[in-house]
Amino acid sequence: MEIKLDNVVLDEINEYLMDENITDLNWNGRELWLDDLNRGRLLSDKKLSARFVENFSIRLANLMNLNFNKHNPLLEAETDDLRISIIHESVAKTGRSISIRKTPVVKRLNRRIMIESGFCPEEICNFMENAIRAHCSTIICGLPSVGKTEYLKALSAYIPAHERVATIEDNLEIHFKDINPRNDCVELKITESFPFEKAIASCLRHNVKWTLLSEARGREVVHLMNNLSNGTWCMTTLHANNVRKIPDRIANMVGEAYVHERFINNIYAFLDIGVHINASVRQDEEITRRIEQICVFSREDNNNILSIIYEDGQLYPDKLTYEIRHRFEKNGIKDPFREGGWHETDQSGKRV
Predict the structure, then answer these.
(1) Pair 120, 82 in one domain
(2) Could you tell me which residue ranges the Bacterial type II secretion system protein E domain spans (predicted)?
């Protein structure tokens, strides 16, 4: 359920919500910590008043029509551009905990920013642009708050406008239609009556070519794999700290009942690229994010292959598998690490 919060309710934190460089606010019951794109993780000198914390919680609970007390100690909500979570002091012994993640309708990454900031070298920008052109299903991994969704949003700019996209999210963060207004898109919001499984299954009946799943967390991956086996493509994110762990992470998410040899084989057959993003976050220093690893998945001659093509700043182009090379060649891409003519544009069609 999406709600609206007025400025009066947000009065003590409004200055931080208006600051475009601040991405996260975290109140631990005693201190307010901020994540700033330019200055890293900061301890604010502001102390939230007990009145604000209580009124904010009550207002949120009322808007969500939920109880928030020691019997119901977790309260979560979202607005157009905020994702909010509150933990009651009955279980948070340091005091009531408030976490606010800003999800603005902006795209923080583009080709120029990625190269100039050191997020990735030009060859990797070229490779990933060409990978989307070649319809490579991509899974982006990393720890929380490293920028997985932001990178997914950046890659989405290279999907051709005529290839229908479905975004599937419980918290709206991708904003695909807003940042790619010329593209054909269906934005699906997960609810109790419309869970991930139903949303993913519905995509085939609505001529969806690309499924953008905000985060892979559980058994919905089984349905995603089924869609990919029908010839569609996907981008999604998951929590893992190394691309080599992606297959095992997926197997753990779906549970023993679904993990069999065919399912494991399908991971390598229908996923194409894994990307690992890391972030260096220090107090009072700029947050630096970068791509640390890229791998390709293939199933060739009944063997499952995970091949590292980029790691810790080193490129290994000779490690591209036959299957992935063939995928690029079928789409007219002879050297995927060279610029291929597919560029990101703004709403007027001008390259950025």
Answers:
(1) no
(2) 81-276
Give the chain's domain count: 2
- What DSSP state is assigned to residue 177? H
**pLDDT digits 0-9 by tens, 109-151:** 999 999 999 999 999 999 999 999 999 999 999 998 899 999 9
- pLDDT surpassing 60 at residue 351: no
For residues 132 and 90, membership in a common domain is answered with no
350 lies in some domain = no
Are 281 and 319 members of one domain? yes
Which residue matches tokens 């990735």?
Answer: 120
Distance, in Å, from the CA atom of 226 to the CA atom of 109, rounded to the nearest integer, reads 31
Looking at the fold, whether 83 and 123 belong to one and the same domain comes out as: no
Are the CB atoms for 2 and 79 separated by under 8 Å? yes
Q: Give, in order, the Cα–Cα distances in Å from 232 to each of 132, 133, 199, 206, 254.
A: 12, 13, 15, 12, 21
Distance (Å, whole) CA 274 – CA 22: 28
Q: Are 289 and 23 in contact (CB under 8 A)?
A: no
The two three-digit tokens of residue 307, written as one number: 């091949």
* Token pair 């002091």 in the structure block, residue: 89
| Domain harbouring 74, CATH code | 3.30.450.370
C-alpha to C-alpha distance for 64 and 32, rounded to whole angstroms: 24
C-beta contacts of 70-79 below 8 A and 24+ residues apart: 77/1, 77/3, 78/1, 78/2, 78/3, 78/103, 78/171, 78/172, 79/2, 79/3, 79/4, 79/5
Residue 345 lies in a domain: no
For 280-306, the pLDDT digits (tens) are: 877 767 788 999 999 999 999 999 999
Range of the domain at 62: 7-102
Please enumerate in sequence order all residues whose Cβ is within 8 A of that of 230, keeping only pairs 6 or more positions apart, or say none.
Answer: 204
Helical H segments across the chain, by residue range: 14-18, 50-64, 111-117, 122-133, 148-156, 176-179, 196-205, 220-229, 246-254, 261-270, 322-330
Give phi and psi for 200, each to the nearest 5: -65, -45
| In a shared domain, residues 160 and 302 | yes
